[in-house]
Structure formats: C-alpha cells, structure tokens
Design goal:
Elements: H1 11-19, E1 22-27, H2 33-40, E2 44-49, E3 54-56, E4 61-63, H3 66-73, E5 78-79, H4 87-95, E6 100-104, H5 112-115, E7 122-126, E8 134-135, H6 138-144, E9 149-156, E10 166-173, H7 180-203, E11 219-220, H8 236-245, E12 252-256, E13 259-269, E14 282-285, E15 288-292, E16 297-305, E17 311-312, H9 313-319
Parallel strand pairs: 1-2, 1-6, 2-5, 6-7, 8-11
Antiparallel strand pairs: 3-4, 7-9, 9-10, 12-13, 13-16, 14-15, 15-16, 16-17
C-alpha cells in the first residue's frame, strides 16, 4: 500500500551522495540520538536544533537534552530557540542553507516558513506506520490499543500533522511485554537504519513520495499525567496495556489512602474469585496482590506509593495489611 522498498546501496554510494548534503537536524529526546548518530559521519550536519534546557530530577536542575549532549560531544553547533516562530529564528536557520531538514521527535511544530526553507524539504522520522497514529504519542498509543505491529515511517513534512507523503516504512513487531521505553528504543534504532537508506535515494530523485490513505488515519495526543489514571471498570487486558503504555511516563496510577499509587508492572491473572467484588477491590493475599477489574483480574507486580521507592507488590502488601479488601481509586 505504501512505499516499502528499501535501498541497499553500497557504502561508497551512500557516502558520495550524502557527503555532499548539508543537513539541519532537529530532535530532542533519546529516541533521536541514534538517528543523529547514523547521520553524523555521513553528512555535513550544519547545526542541531533542540529544545531548551529543562528542569529535571528532584533538584530540578537545568538539564541538557540527550540530543544536545550528543551534539556537543561531537562538536556540532547547537541552537535552542524557545520557539521557531520569530522571524530572526527563521533567518538564523536559513543562514545555514540546508539542503534538507531531518526531524526526529523535536517537540515543536514546524511552521510553513520553516518547512519551505530547504530545497529538498523537511524529512520526519515518525514512530508509527502512518497513517496509523499521527500525533505526539504514537508508541504509547500502539501499545495501549493492543496493536501487534508498529514501525517507522520516513515522510516529507507538510503543514498538516504527520499528514505528509511517505518516503519509506519499516515494520517492527510489538512484543507482549513491551513498554513505551523498550519499544521506543528498538524503534529509534530502526529509524537510524532506515533513514540512511532512504535519504540518499530521496536526494538523488529516486523515490516518488506516496500520499497517505486518509480513510485509514488514526490520531494520538500528547500524553498528560491524567492519562495514567487507572479506571478499574475497564477490563484487565486494557489496564495491563495501559500500564505498559504509560511506562516510563506518566506511569499508570491509582489512589490508595488519599495517596497516589503507581503501578509499575502488572499482568493478567487467571484467578477466579469466589465472591464477586466491585471493580478496584484488592483481592488475594500478600503473595499475589490482585485487583478486580470490570472484567477479569489484574495482578500487580511492582508498585510505588507516593513519596516512597518502587517495590514488589508482595512486599508492599506485607507492610500494608489493610490493603486486602480495600477499594483502589477512591
């Protein structure tokens, strides 16, 4: 349905074509680092644009993004504009005269004046098989929905959200125990492999971009803290996927004695309770901490009470004897 053929050009051809290209790279989190690393020795990276340093950790100290750390370690110029909207920022980007802009999880929307800068366009490394899961949280969305497969799409950017034509795609199976962290790491390396195969063919006029099938579009929004809140009236399978989809952030969570209780790991239980219980009721004993869902039982494997360290659920239950029979989420 889409352009799924891949370039297997020899190394000399790859270096010859890419070595002449001036690339402006935009990215921020760890997901983008392997992509940048795959390009840094094959093209001229004229500059790296990343998000401003942000507070992180308990001390809330200003922290450099993973992409900034990589760029500085490799002697690449780094730009950190608060926004790409100001004309002076656009002029600064234009002054680098890039042939193309490569974007991987940058974190800002590119306006038309930026999209129009490079003659060979802005190329995005997107973590889904478009048109499924356009938007800011495609990895989490795929896990939460129970998809068996996702992948990487290399696409030309346009004004619409992830709506541009496709240059290439590569699928990646979703494993039963995948979290957003584990799947995201694999997808970052998939993108790092696919981009250097695709980019020279695009720059050399060997790829005809394929429009997306608008009838197959699904969308996802940026994750919010409340997306992690567990609704125990849902079935156990949906909640188990939510736990994995919300790892590492914002983490799936519920309420226990007016405090937030994060569920770090969980699995569907085959347990059959003797007496029906309301959804959210803790059943079982300290050896297996299980919760009644709207349909089915979820066994909690690792939890973290607000202000405390993460621990096995069985250890938590031994220290909270009033947990058995309690109603979570209230």
């Amino acid at each position: 349905m889409y352009c799924r053929h891949y370039c297997h050009a020899s190394k000399p051809l790859l270096i010859t074509i890419l070595g002449m290209a001036r690339i402006l790279f935009m990215g921020t989190p760890q997901f983008a680092v392997p992509v940048l690393s795959a390009l840094v020795e094959k093209v001229e990276i004229v500059a790296v644009v990343t998000q401003p340093d942000a507070p992180a950790g308990r001390g809330r100290a200003l922290t450099r993004s993973p992409v900034k750390q990589f760029a500085l370690a490799h002697g690449l110029p780094v730009l950190q504009p608060e926004s790409l909207k100001p004309p002076e920022v656009v002029a600064q980007l234009r002054a680098y005269t890039p042939d193309a802009i490569v974007v991987a999880a940058f974190g800002q929307i590119l306006r038309r004046d930026v999209l129009a800068l490079p003659p060979r366009g802005c190329i995005n490394v997107h973590a889904s098989l478009l048109p499924r899961w356009r938007g800011a949280s495609p990895i989490s969305a795929a896990i939460a929905a129970g998809d068996s497969t996702t992948g990487i799409t290399i696409m030309l950017m346009e004004a619409g959200l992830d709506s541009g034509p496709i240059l290439s795609q590569r699928a990646e199976p979703i494993r039963p125990d995948d979290t957003t962290a584990s799947l995201g790491e694999r997808l970052s390396h998939t993108g790092a492999a696919l981009l250097p195969e695709t980019l020279p063919r695009w720059l050399n006029g060997q790829i005809t971009p394929q429009r997306q099938d608008e009838s197959q579009v699904t969308k996802c929004s940026p994750l919010k803290k409340d997306d992690g809140r567990i609704d125990w009236s849902r079935n156990a399978g949906e909640i188990e996927r939510q736990v994995r989809a919300m790892t590492p952030w914002p983490s799936a969570w519920t309420v226990w004695q007016s405090k937030q209780l994060q569920v770090k790991r969980a699995r569907i239980s085959a347990m059959q309770p003797l007496v029906p219980s309301p959804a959210g009721t803790v059943i079982g004993d300290s050896a297996a901490v299980c919760v009644q869902c709207g349909e089915g039982i979820l066994e909690l494997l690792e939890v973290q009470l607000e202000g405390k360290r993460a621990m096995p659920a069985s250890e938590f239950a031994r220290g909270q004897r009033q947990l058995a029979g309690a109603l979570l989420g209230k």
